[in-house]
UniProtKB/TrEMBL annotation:
Residues 396-408 have a biased composition (Basic residues). SUPFAM superfamilies: NAD(P)-binding Rossmann-fold domains (SSF51735). Its cofactor is NAD(+). It comes from Oryzias sinensis. Pfam families: GDP_Man_Dehyd. Belongs to the NAD(P)-dependent epimerase/dehydratase family. UDP-glucuronic acid decarboxylase subfamily. The lineage of its organism: Eukaryota, Metazoa, Chordata, Craniata, Vertebrata. It is a single-pass type II membrane protein. Coiled coil: none annotated. Residues 389-408 are annotated as: Disordered. This is UDP-glucuronic acid decarboxylase 1. It comes from the Eukaryota. Pathway: Nucleotide-sugar biosynthesis; UDP-alpha-D-xylose biosynthesis; UDP-alpha-D-xylose from UDP-alpha-D-glucuronate: step 1/1. One of its GO terms (biological process) is D-xylose metabolic process. One of its GO terms (cellular component) is Golgi cisterna membrane.
Length: 408
């Protein structure tokens, strides 16, 4: 009769220091018992090999990942993040992983990158699935953060039909999944649903001013109907929904060429190129740092507020002020260049966050300059990384072997 190797307990599975050693010793002694009973040398070597490799793997596991909290079975949630390899999604992944939850990221890598979540790959609480939300998905989860959608104008205008499909069919699929497994769904909606607003600042009860056939409509209307779908599923099927209306956000892992104001200005300033301002630069925006947004999303998901909530930083600046501030933080000699106004570009944008403050106790805490400095550091590292990884074919002469000169 052979022994079954013991299953690891949850603490051991969590990859704590020394677990590899404990586990290996126990397994090796069991292998020895097995050999004594069966006198089968082959099994001994085979199992020793397995346990040794596992030991090496487990020891490296304990050092490889950022530290994660231990949560009891009762408190640990299985969480799906669609679009989790993107800018916001990857920061949300970090928070939920470090809080001790099991996180599944689903992404089709349209604008997201594996690199954004690579530090979790192989962790037992983490799963990465290459999947398009326009196709149905069948998994077991307790909460769904539905972020999958291109978010910057050049990206969502690149393929407007796909943007519409992602926000409509993709959202229906995720609501269908939420209904089937009894999960709560949080939709990453946007301030764009207010369009070019006629009221200022924008509060959640403002219905918006959107051009339904303009170039941004695929995104604005896509998100508006996604919200409608959430409330239809809530009323008709009893699905628990949360809707976050996210205002402009910035931080590390923004895509290098996604064409958003902050990333554009920082990259232009770092490379000594002119900072391009569309129109006069008098249009306003309010930017929040990504860690503030992530905290707001988690608070909202775990609250009992099912109506939409604005998440943004109410500190409003003109685009021109942003350009000047970034130029001075980078210490750049770039010029500011004025280009023709973009169509349907909202003139003023500033969230009214009284609801989030009152009901979630949330408000942004990261000062603008601090967030910008962190983002500038990130983009300089990215530029360096790009420069170091460019493929430059070696000239023929460099490939010649030493001591064997060629005569041409
Ligand atoms: N960043 C902001 O300022 C901001 C503002 C308002 C709303 N939002 C919303 O937050 C969410 C995340 O935005 P972000 O800034 O991280 O953008 P992002 O482009 O970095 O991330 C979006 C992610 O969704 C993925 N994706 C797109 N289509 C998909 C599909 N069909 N199936 C699976 N994955 C798909 C992309 O590959 C990417 O990883 C979006 O829903 C966006 O609308 C962001």
């Amino acid at each position: 009769m052979g022994h079954k190797l013991p299953a690891l307990n949850s603490q051991q599975r969590r990859g704590e220091r020394g677990v590899g050693l404990l586990h290996t010793n126990r397994q090796i002694s069991l292998c020895r018992d097995y050999v004594l009973e069966n006198n089968t040398v082959f099994y001994f070597y085979f199992l020793s090999f397995l346990t040794t490799t596992e030991f090496i793997f487990s020891s490296s596991v304990s050092q490889k990942y950022p530290p994660v909290k231990f949560l009891s079975e009762k408190d640990r949630k299985r969480i799906l993040i669609t679009g989790g390899a993107g800018f916001v999604g990857s920061h949300l992944t970090d928070k939920l992983m470090m809080d001790g939850h099991e996180v599944t990221v689903v992404d089709n890598f349209f604008t997201g990158r594996k690199r954004n979540v690579e530090h979790w790959i192989g962790h037992e609480n983490f799963e990465l699935i290459n999947h398009d939300v326009v196709e149905p998905l069948y998994i077991e989860v307790d909460q769904i953060y539905h972020l999958a959608s291109p978010a910057s104008p050049p990206n969502y205008m690149y393929n407007p039909i796909k943007t519409l499909k992602t926000n409509t069919i993709g959202t229906l699929n995720m609501l269908g999944l939420a209904k089937r497994v009894g999960a709560r769904l949080l939709l990453a909606s946007t301030s764009e649903i207010y369009g070019d607003p006629e009221v200022h600042p924008q509060s959640e009860d403002y219905w918006g001013h959107v051009n339904p056939i303009g170039p941004r409509a695929c995104y604005d209307e896509g998100k508006r109907v996604a919200e409608t779908m959430c409330y239809a599923y809530m009323k008709q099927e009893g699905v628990e929904v949360r809707v976050a209306r996210i205002f402009n956000t910035f931080g590390s892992r923004m895509h290098m060429n996604d064409g958003r104001v902050v990333s554009n200005f920082i990259l232009q300033a770092l490379q000594g190129e002119p900072l391009t301002v569309y129109g006069t630069g008098s249009q306003t925006r309010a930017f929040q740092y990504v860690s503030d947004l992530v905290n707001g999303l988690v608070l909202l998901m775990n609250s009992n507020i099912s109506s939409p909530v604005n998440l943004g930083n109410p500190e409003e600046h003109t685009i021109l002020e942003f350009a000047r501030l970034i130029k001075s933080l980078v210490v750049s000699h770039s010029q500011i260049q004025f280009l023709a106004e973009a169509q349907d570009d909202p003139q003023r944008r500033r969230p009214d966050i009284r609801k989030a403050k009152m009901l979630l106790g949330w408000e942004p805490v990261v000062p603008l300059e601090e967030g910008l400095n962190k983002t500038i550091q990130y983009f300089s590292r990215e530029l360096e990384h790009q420069a170091n990884n460019q493929y430059i074919p070696k000239p023929k002469a460099a490939r010649m072997k030493k001591g064997r000169p060629r005569h041409n």
